[in-house]
Design goal:
This protein is about 25% helix and about 30% strand. By secondary structure, the protein is an alpha+beta fold. A 7-stranded mixed β-sheet has the order 1-2-3-4-5-7-6. A hairpin with a 5-residue loop joins strand 2 and strand 3. The longest helix has 17 residues. It starts with a helix and ends with a strand.
Length: about 180
């Protein structure tokens, strides 16, 4: 495989991308295809991660930028990452970070995360990046630690995004940890 940066191109998502993004994100986080990747939350949360309505509201919110990454040669969606600008604390919040499961563990995620960081610094002049992940997903906490994120010790109960209309968890002890990284 060539250098990942030569294999991907990216742009800002539009509402026309919602259906493809729903498939990508749900397959990366949960469901049978998620097992092709190195990490998933299928055993913790049995419901889809997102839907088109939720993504449409995210994309149309002017504090959000959802970057979508495509193969340079095939133009097939390979990954995405959401950035939410928090200007009051010079921070960008990372979310909906997903890589197609069959491409995970090949450097795509590392590249996508680096582009998100660069975008936030160059466009919003942020000093800090933050994200939350389920603390019981120790492999993800370790992944973000290797990328310079530090666990703040902040914890909150995990509530699935779709819980009001269809979500539930397999366990009632799930919680989110907040990780931060200083970039300026």
């Amino acid at each position: 495989m060539g250098d990942v940066k030569d294999l991907l191109t990216y742009r800002i998502a539009t509402v026309e991308d919602c259906d493809a993004l729903v498939t990508l994100i749900n397959n990366a986080y949960r469901g049978p295809l998620s097992h092709q990747g190195w990490t998933n939350e299928d055993t913790l949360i049995p419901t889809p991660r997102t839907n088109a309505n939720l993504l449409s509201s995210i994309i149309t919110n002017d504090k959000n930028i959802l970057l979508v990454f495509f193969g340079t040669s095939d133009q097939i969606l390979k990954g995405c990452v959401l950035l939410t600008h928090k200007p009051e604390c010079k921070t960008a919040r990372i979310g909906l970070f997903a890589v197609r499961p069959d491409l995970q563990a090949n450097g795509y995620g590392k590249f996508i995360l680096s582009i998100a960081e660069k975008y936030a610094i160059d466009n919003w002049n942020v000093e800090c990046l933050e994200l939350s992940t389920i603390v019981q997903r120790t492999e993800l906490v370790a992944y973000y630690s290797r990328r310079g994120f530090i666990d703040t010790g902040e914890r909150q109960p995990f509530v699935p995004a779709l819980s009001l209309d269809q979500g539930c968890t397999m366990r009632d002890d799930l919680e989110l940890c907040t990780l931060k990284k200083r970039v300026n």
